[in-house]
Structure formats: structure tokens, C-alpha cells
Amino acid sequence: MASATEPPQRVGWLEERLGLASIRAFLAHKTVPVHAQTLWYYFGGITLFLFVIQVLTGTLLLLYYRPSPAEAYESVQFIVTRVQFGWLIRSIHSWSANLMILSAFIHMFSVVFLRAFRRPRELTWLSGIALLGLALGFGFSGYLLPWNTVSYFATKVGTDMAAAVPVVGHGLARFLRGGNDVGGATLTRFFGFHVAVLPGITTLLLLAHLMLVQKHGMSSPQRAVEEYRRKGLPIPQMPFFPNFFLRELMAWYAALGVLGSLAAIFPWELGVKADPFAPAPAGIRPEWYFLAPFYTLKLIPSHVWVFEGELVGLVGFGLLALWWVVLPFWAVNRQGEERTRLVTGAGVVLVAYLVTFSALGYWR
Amino acid sequence: MDEPRRNLLRWLLGGGFSASLISFLYPAFKFMNPPDIPEASVNEVSAGKVQDLKPNTGKIVKFGSLPVLLVRTTETEWRAFSAVCTHLNCTVQYKESSHQIWCACHNGLYNLNGQVVSGPPPHPLEAYSVHIRGDEVVISRRA
């Protein structure tokens, strides 16, 4: 007869094969700091949840989508008009892509303002920024797949920006387009990037990012740490399982509610089929997360001193992105002191730039 | 094992590994680079009948694989330009209200000589020649 302390026989069978005790022990020890800013911890999980939604709905769309200029638009049209709940699946895929990028941006800026990138979490920051870049890559490659007018011109502009990169630009643009101009080869390539290359890299990088988060634990804001230190107390902790986990599940449930409502009330439009010999339509603009650079490019004159405006814009964006990527390394001075004001100021200026220029790009 | 032999083995293993890695990556890299597909050179296309385009209107015409903008400015005057904006490759259109050529992507404006009037385009549009043969409009490359 089994004693009261032994696991039931069924659990024992699994225990022997999977080693569940180590997972239970890990979950029992993992904690999450509790302070006024704990809310922001949920956005990383929400981004992950929306990525899973992307994978699931994307897999469903693959059952009907056909990646060629002659059939892509028609296959998406078939999905949204003939396939049962096709409109909903496509709408959820498009809305969750946008919400995922929004959630990733909120997650990134919360990390900046709570200074969660500090030593020893530099690699967690770098992997997170790379994941944000991949999310934008997903957005850019997926945008072309319905082969409509807006996506066609957005891809022309985007790949032509790549062509402006000094030295390697021409080769890079040809690699992206699969030829000299946007066409069937581009659609096939972007489909490959969207459903195979990017998911593969993202999965590996996501695992690395989550492992780093597990290794270092969740960062506590310096202000909260000092506040409790003055009181002579350690910062309060909440068990990850089940307390934080159940709260995160509720956050996911809320995100699902928002996503479902948006997808059902505002179904994603398909637009007009791309015609390479039609002019770019009035009011054309990219997805909201590319609006700020889009509007900036509109403002830059044709020439800045002896350089073409396009090149100046591209080099400017490149330097800005590089400066942001290496943030953890300039956020401390040589004496190891934190440049708190500089980081907060840079974060505020960047948020203000993105919000203002995105709004201007949308309305003007 | 003595140190020189160990170093030799390390060098052979490392070199062999690197060489096989390069031999795997090189074909993959070359495979990703799209081949050049030569296109038949087009020097002249028919853009339709004279009466198909009213004065102060424009239309895009296929010139091989390139879009060309044909504009009938008056009853007797015709212009044609490459319809590819010199800024970021969008396709331009004729704006009847202002008698200008406009790129909707970044608000670039050109005049009816193809010169940049305002906005970010860095260069003028390439001009093409237009001839009337009977009642047919013919666009050709300039020499």
C-alpha cells in the first residue's frame, strides 16, 4: 500500500519518465516582485500569447492561401468570402499581428522606463530588441501576401529603401525582391520568409529570451528597491505559480477579448488587387508602426547638402536604431553610475517622436 | 601526445570543419541570389488611339516591364515620362487640377518637363518621346 507522502501511481508513472518534481520545484521557487509597477510585467506575456495566436491562425490560413501574383489576392478573397469563419480567422491574424507589435513596443518602453535592461540583463535586452525587429519583419513580409495595391507599393518603397544602403544596398534589394523589381518572385520570397525563415529564427530567439528571463529573474525598479531598503525590508515577492500565472492568464483572457472584439467589429479589409501598372493611390500609407519613418521621409527634402535626402533619412534611422539597440551600454558611465535622466529623457523623446509623427503620417 | 602534433591535429580539424562549413554555405548563399533574367529590349510601344485620351489627362502605359506615364497636355501636345518616382520607386500619376505629376507615396511633385517641383524626389523623371502615326500614339525611348 502506498504511503500518504508518495505521489499517486499515475503521477508516479509520469514522474519516472518526465521528472516532474524538478519542474514543480522550479515553479515553487520562482517569484515575481510586487510593487507599484508590477502591471508592466504582463506585457511580455501578452506579446507571447499574441505570437501563439499568430502561429495558430497563420497555420489555418496556410490551408487555403496560394503564394503567386495570379492567385494570392483571389485565395485571400476566397478565404474571407467562401470559407466558413475565414473572415474571422484572417481578421484575427491581422489584428493580433498589430496588437502583438503594440504590446512588444509597450513591453520595450516599460523595460526602458523601469530600467530593467541594467546589468546583468544586457543580453535579455538585445534578444528582446532582435525579437521586436523580427516582429516588424513579420509585419512587413506578411503585409505583401494578400497582393493588394497598398501592400504592393509599401513593398516597393520598403525594398527601395534597402537599395539606398551604401555598398550592399543593390544586392540587398535584389535579395529581398528576388529580382530587380517587386513581382511574383518577391511574393514567393516574402511567403517563405513569413512562414518558415522568420518563425524558425523567432522560436530560437524567443527560447533564448525566456531562458535569460528565467536565469536573471524579473528586475525590480531601482526606486522600489531603495524604498524597501530604507524600511529595512526586502522587496515583497509573489509566487510565480499559481499567483502570477493566474493573473497572467486573466491578462491573456482580456487580450483575447479585445482581439476578438476588434476582429469581429472591424474585419480586416482586403483592398484592391495590386496592379504593377497602376499609379500609387492617393492617401496611401503603410501600417501604423511604419508611419513615423514614412512621414519623416516625406519631410526630408530631395537633397541635404550634397547628399540625397533618402540616403540621409536612411542613415539617420540606422544610427538611431543602433543607438537604441546598444542602450544598456551607454546607460552607465565609465564609473559605473547610471545615467538615469539621459535614459528617461531619450525614452520620452523617442515615444513623443513615434506618437507625433505616426499621428501626422496618419492624418496628413 | 606532444604539443606540435596536438596543434597540427587542431589545425587540421579546425581547417577541415571551416572548409566544409564554407562549402555548405557558399552554394546556399549563391542560391539565394536571384539570377539575372535578360528582358527583351523595348524601344517603342503603341499607347493606343489619339481619341482614347482627352486633353489634360494622363494614363500609365506598359513599356516592356516598365510603367510610362503618357500625358496629353493639350489637343496637340503630348508628353511621356518614366512613371517610376525617383524617390522610392512608387508609380506616379497625372494631377489634372494642378497640371503636375504627383507621387502619392511621399507627396513628390514634378512639372510637365519631368523636373522636381517639390517634395523628396532627388532627380527628374526620365523623358520619353511621343509621336503620332496616323491616329496612333507611339512612345519611344529618347536616343
Pick out its properties:
heterodimer; A: 364 residues; mainly alpha; two-stranded antiparallel sheet; 15 helices; globular; B: 143 residues; alpha+beta; six-stranded antiparallel beta sheet; 35% strand
Description:
- The complex is a heterodimer of chains A (364) and B (143).
- By secondary structure, chain A is mainly α.
- Chain A has 15 helices and four strands.
- In chain A, helix 5 (86-113) runs antiparallel to helix 6 (122-144) and helix 5 packs across helix 11 (240-265).
- Chain A starts with 8 loop residues before the first helix and ends with a helix.
- Chain B has one helix and ten strands.
- In chain B, a hairpin with a 4-residue loop joins strand 6 and strand 7 (108-110).
- In chain B, the strands form two sheets. A six-stranded antiparallel sheet of chain B has the order 1-10-9-4-3-2, with no helix packed on it. Chain B has a four-stranded antiparallel sheet with strand order 5-6-7-8, with no helix packed on it.
- Chain B has one helix spanning 3-32; strands spanning 44-49, 57-63, 66-72, 78-82, 93-95, 100-103, 108-110, 116-118, 127-133, 136-140.
- Chain B is an alpha+beta fold.
- Chain A binds chain B through residues 153, 156-157, 159-161, 171, 174-175, 177-179, 181, 185, 276-284, 294, 297-298, 300-303, 308-310, and chain B through 32-34, 37, 60-62, 65, 67, 69, 83, 87-93, 103-107, 116, 119-122.
Mean pLDDT of chain A: 92
Oligomer: heterodimer
Radius of gyration of chain A: 24 Å
Could you spell the SSE succession of chain B in H and E letters?
HEEEEEEEEEE
CATH topological fold name of the domain at 32-280 in chain A: Cytochrome Bc1 Complex, Chain C
Q: Give the N-to-C terminal Cα separation of chain B.
A: 75 Å
- Order of strands, main sheet of chain A, comes to 1-2
In CATH terms, the superfamily of the domain at 32-280 in chain A is: Cytochrome Bc1 Complex, Chain C
Strand order of the largest sheet of chain B: 1-10-9-4-3-2
Give the amount of beta strand of chain A, in percent: under 5%
Parts with pLDDT < 50 across at least 5 consecutive residues of chain A: none
The number of helices of chain A is 15
What is the annotated CATH architecture of the domain at 32-280 in chain A?
Up-down Bundle
Question: What is the CA-CA span between the terminal residues of chain A?
Answer: 78 Å
Name the beta content range of chain B.
25-35%
How does the major sheet of chain A shape up? Answer: 2 strands, antiparallel
* Mean of all residue-level pLDDT scores of chain B: 93
- Summed up, the helix count of chain B is 1
* DSSP E strands of chain A, number: 4
